[in-house]
Amino acid sequence: MQQPTLSPIVAGCMKWGQWGSGFTTGQYVNMISACADNGISSFDHADIYGDYSTEEEFGKALHQLPGLRNKIQLITKCGIKMPVASRPSFRIKSYNTSKEYIIECAERSLSNLHTDYIDAFLIHRPDPLMNPEEIAEAFTRLKQQGKILHAGVSNFTPSQTAMLHKYFPVEINQIEVSLLYMDPFHNGQLDQCQQEKIVPMAWSPLGGGQLLTDTTSERNKRIVTAAAALSDKYATNIENILLAFLHRHPSGIIPVLGTSKIERLQSAMAAAGLRLEAEEWFMLWEASAGKQVP
Ligand SMILES: NC(=O)c1ccc[n+]([C@@H]2O[C@H](COP(=O)([O-])OP(=O)(O)OC[C@H]3O[C@@H](n4cnc5c(N)ncnc54)[C@H](OP(=O)(O)O)[C@@H]3O)[C@@H](O)[C@H]2O)c1
C-alpha cells in the first residue's frame, strides 16, 4: 500500500467560504495559488463546509488555474447529513454511510471540485449504523474507477478503524489533536496509525485558534508561555512551536491548519522542518497537562 503523499501542512478550507471568511472567487484563486507556490499542496474539504457550498466555490476557482490540478492534492469527506436550506429533504442532522450515499457524495464532490479524481476521500464521522463491508465496497468501487486515489476515515476510534481495516486498507484517520486535545496520545488512535501505517491528520491543530486567542484560560497561558520560550530558541513564532509539537510525534502527524490568511500558512510551512528535542516536547506536554508525566 502506497501512503498518500500530502504536504507537511495541509490547508484546511472549512472557514474559507460561508463558514468564515466568505472568499470571493478571486480570493480563492489567490489563496490556492499562493499555497501551491509555497509548497502547501494539500487542501482539506468536506461536502458540508459552508452548508455544502465551499467545495463548489473552491472548484470554480481551481477551474481558473489550469495546469495546477495534478500538482495539488484534494481531500474531502462525506457521510454527514446537515439539514440546511440547500438540503430540504434532510429533516435532522444524521449520518449516512451506505454504499449508495458514499458513491453519490463522491460523484458530487468530483463535480463541485471540477476534478476527475479526489486524492483522499474520508468518512467524516463514525456512523453508529455503519456497515464496514458496505463502506469497503463503495471505496473499492470508487478506487477501481480511478475516482479516488486513497480512502480513509475521520474521528474514528481504534476499534472502529480496525473494523473497517479488516475489509479495506484505511489509509488516513483525520482526528482532533493538539496541545488542547491530547487524548489521541493515550487512547490508541496514534498507536494504531503508527502500527498500521495510517496517516494521522490533525484537525484544529491550534485548538481552533483558541490556544492563541483565549488568554483567560490558565491552561492556555501555561502552554503559550512554554511555547514562547522555545520560539525564542528556534527563532520562530509560538504557533510554529505548537505545530512542531505535532510534527515531532513518530506517527507522522500532518496538521490541517484552518487559517484563511496566506501569511500564516506560509510561516507555518517555513517551520515545517523544525524538530523539537524530546525534553522540549515533554515541556509542552507538561504545560498542557498541568503536571509531570507519571
Ligand atoms: N475532520 C473533522 O471532523 C474536522 C473538524 C474540524 C476541522 N477540520 C479541518 O481542520 C481544519 C482546521 O480546523 P480549525 O480551523 O479548527 O483549526 P486551527 O488551525 O486550530 O484554527 C484556525 C483558526 O485559528 C485562527 N488563528 C488565530 N491565530 C492564528 C495563527 N497565528 N495561525 C493560524 N490560525 C490562527 C484562524 O483565524 P484566521 O483565519 O484569522 O487566521 C482560524 O480561525 C479545518 O479547516 C478543516 O479542514 C476537520
Description:
The structure is a single chain. The chain is an alpha/beta fold and 294 residues long. The radius of gyration is 19 Å and the shape is globular. The mean pLDDT is 97.
Which helices and strands occur, and which strands form pairs?
Elements: E1 10-12, H1 25-37, E2 42-44, H2 49-52, H3 54-63, E3 73-78, E4 80-81, E5 94-95, H4 99-112, E6 118-123, H5 132-144, E7 148-154, H6 158-165, E8 172-176, H7 189-196, E9 199-203, H8 210-213, H9 218-233, H10 238-247, E10 254-257, H11 262-270, H12 278-289
Parallel strand pairs: 1-2, 1-10, 2-3, 3-6, 6-7, 7-8, 8-9, 9-10
Antiparallel strand pairs: 4-5
Helix pairs in contact: 1-3, 4-5, 9-10, 9-12
The structure holds NADP nicotinamide-adenine-dinucleotide phosphate.
NADP nicotinamide-adenine-dinucleotide phosphate binds next to helix 8 and strand 10.
What percentage of the residues does DSSP assign to strands (E)? Answer: 5-15%
- The dominant shape is globular
Multimeric state: single chain
Class computed from helices, strands and strand pairing: alpha/beta
Primary descriptors:
TIM Barrel, binds NADP nicotinamide-adenine-dinucleotide phosphate, alpha/beta, 294 residues, single chain, globular, eight-stranded parallel barrel, two-stranded antiparallel sheet
Question: Could you give a short description of this structure?
Answer:
With 294 residues, the chain is of the alpha/beta class. 41% of the residues lie in helices and 15% in strands. The chain contains 12 helices and 10 strands.
